[in-house]
């Protein structure tokens, strides 16, 4: 079978992602049961160019803006949240590439459809050895690891068994990111969760694997081409697109159900019931304001970075707006889905209803670090010149 060439523009990829949504919705139960993405769906995403969103055009990638990436993630998540989540994770490969030496990165990623998965938090131990590191550890939440080409893992650096301090004295215990071929990683089949069940976010282990120095990096050193996507916070910007896509799907579904229902006790069309009308309107208002907040924050950030500026050039309020907007999006999307679940009452509770899955997916997404109070603390601390707990949410490393 001849495969259709990948999308060549943002508009084309967004259109394709929207066209895939009905098929993804139909296969959601299968995806959940498998607990990771079916290979043919991964191939479809790859063939359409989803994983090249963040690769620069000099790589043959699409180099989508943060706002365009958000639309792709939303469209795929409208069909299935786990697919949207894995697409978002895998498309970050092009971001990581700019923190590597360009020659090395080209060898590691011979085409812009490569997929990287893994956990960036430094849960591993990397012992310095000649030419690189010996990496060992266990990491949770390896979303998309089953279909990845490379696995990225954060680790603290040691030398001769002692904590390794950065030579410039900036860090008493240095941590780095390490890239390892997928076949050198052992996946632990323990992803059996409430929601995002199809994301395959299993734990994984790496045992005494040699990682060449050039296959490691830190987010404070861009070695490729600088630009809006070669930033420490870039991999976090579109996560909330998954929740927004699910909330949009729930809103459209609820309206369709309302148009079909009649109150059994009174014979009144649901569309004529005041409670129904107010709930739908309130949820739409919350969705519109939330999504506009996310897009507005991304647009302001992109405007500064695309003009050659850096994150420090942003006004503190504008810089804090991005992480604040995504936390709000995670939480508000969950609230919208829960209110619609209650609105539809017993029509929501069956496994055959997508409301059941959307409730579980948004509840699970809200447990991610990106949706936690630590992000609020970091933004709030930044606004008053105090120390953020999770500075990378603001692009601070």
From TrEMBL:
Its keywords, alphabetically, are: Oxidoreductase
Tell me the ranges covered by the Acyl-CoA dehydrogenase/oxidase N-terminal domain, including all copies: 22-95
Q: Which residues form the Acyl-CoA dehydrogenase C-terminal domain?
A: 239-372
InterPro entries named in the record:
Acyl-CoA_dehydrogenase, Acyl-CoA_DH_C, Acyl-CoA_Oxase/DH_mid-dom_sf, AcylCo_DH-like_C, AcylCoA_DH/ox_N, AcylCoA_DH/ox_N_sf, AcylCoA_DH/oxidase_NM_dom_sf
The UniProt family comment states: Belongs to the HpaH/HsaA monooxygenase family.
Protein name, as recorded: Acyl-CoA dehydrogenase
Originating species = Lentzea flava
